[in-house]
Amino acid sequence: MSTDQLSTTFAALADPTRRAILARLAEREATVNELAEPFDLKLPTVSKHLKVLQRAGLVKQSRQAQWRHCSLETAPLKEVAAWVERYCRIWEERFGQLDAYLTDLQAKEKADGVDE
Amino acid sequence: MGSTSSDSNLTRRIGAMTLTIKSDVEIELMRVFDAPRRLVFEACTKPEHVRQWWGLRGSTMVSCEMDFRPGGTWRFVVREADGSENAFRGEYREIVPPERVVQTFELEGMPGAVSVETMTLTEDGGKTTLRTTSRFDSIEARDGMLQSGMERGAAETYDRLEELLRTIR
Description:
The structure holds 2 protein chains of 2 kinds. By secondary structure, chain A is an alpha+beta fold.
């Protein structure tokens, strides 16, 4: 399987804890400790998730004094949003046409039934 | 904030559809149709019907071949609004009338870009819920899926970042 930014981002987003961490960081930056607290997670677990998010370019860490601050990087999310958007538009249009076609088919079936 | 989302999927409503990202390689779309399941199944599995709706607005289906049986193949050629042509093809892996079809989907000329589509139909009170799940095991498959021409030349960018962030909350 080939890897690219989009695949990496999708993989990073596929976990609910990681999505919750991103949502938390969307509010404001946080230290690793602050991130662990609401989730009732052990620090190594949070660090593991953060590593995945960092590799996907979704989270940036900076060191201030002895604290490591995490912040959200939005660029990869835009790529995901754009892909999802296109995917949905194709199916929305296709389903819209199927819906209209089914309405026609049913009207035709009804008319044929009356004729018989 | 304060708790982990119990929903392990990323779900979003788009117009009449519901989108769910079930994992990094699987995406499901759901929509309800005001028609009995028998009819929806027929409209999705017979070429004389499929050619009427499958192509996108402004496109024409030049060819619609469907050997609708397990192991049989399908091939659609679509002339897009801008005059370009795309050919899509695949193989039927599983057919359970009138409730389930599993097939592969690929864009011709894009080797390795094969996704697996599962369509399931359920009926309730004369209405049919259609779910289509696409499994993409490669980025080529994901790109191939979008090769439809409808977005070509569109200068508009669809920045749904805020919406996405709201969804992951």
